[in-house]
Amino acid sequence: MSLHLGENxxxxxxxxxxxxxxxxxxxxxxxxxHAAGLQLxxxxxxxxxxxxxxxxxxxxxxVPVVVAPSGVIEESLDIMLWALTQNDPENWLQNRNDSxxxxxxxxxxxxxxxxxxxxANRHDxxxxxxxxxxxxxxxxxxxILAQNAYLLGNQPRLADMAIFPFVRQFANTDRAWFDAQPWxxxxxxxxxxxxxxxxxxxxxxxxxxxxxxxxxxxxxA
Length: 221
Ligand SMILES: N[C@@H](CCC(=O)N[C@@H](CS)C(=O)NCC(=O)O)C(=O)O
Prior knowledge:
GO terms for molecular function: transferase activity. The chain has 10 helices and 5 strands.
């Protein structure tokens, strides 16, 4: 946690979340904030036009970022842990180290394959090779989910919530192809998350934030 709070010291002690609706890292942060029952001041960022106050708080310029009275949290996983260590009514932190192992695999090799598949033009490469690499991870999830409702047993844990936004992105890259794969358990798991009231709540649309806007608290009660 870095401590360059600058002009961002939250008024009234309510932490600020800088977020971008479609970012899977921001989604996982919002999911944990929702599960913890916290409300933050939501500031919607556009990646192509970042608010200077956001860059002041976190010069590396990636979302999500939380500005709390105790400091700035600049990594999505740290934001999840920050929220859940305050309140974890659904025990997402149970088997925490097993979750962290799966998340490291997601954020490393799977995310690399996802980016090169999804943004093949940007990377000038063969998307099918990267799709096949990512599919190895998804096949593994499907076989785990054939045994259990969730990745680490019969209740959702940190791993499920940190990972499904990335599987969603992989699926949406070519939905027809994804739906044709022999991954019924993975599909059930993904659809369960995507149709949950929690996901609907954290995908609410907000206009781009700018300094001087009245505070928007999210998730809304
Ligand atoms: N390791 C960071 C990664 C966050 C990240 O890369 N977010 C993307 C959006 S999904 C971003 O802000 N990119 C900066 C940009 O596109 O300018 C985390 O876990 O929070």
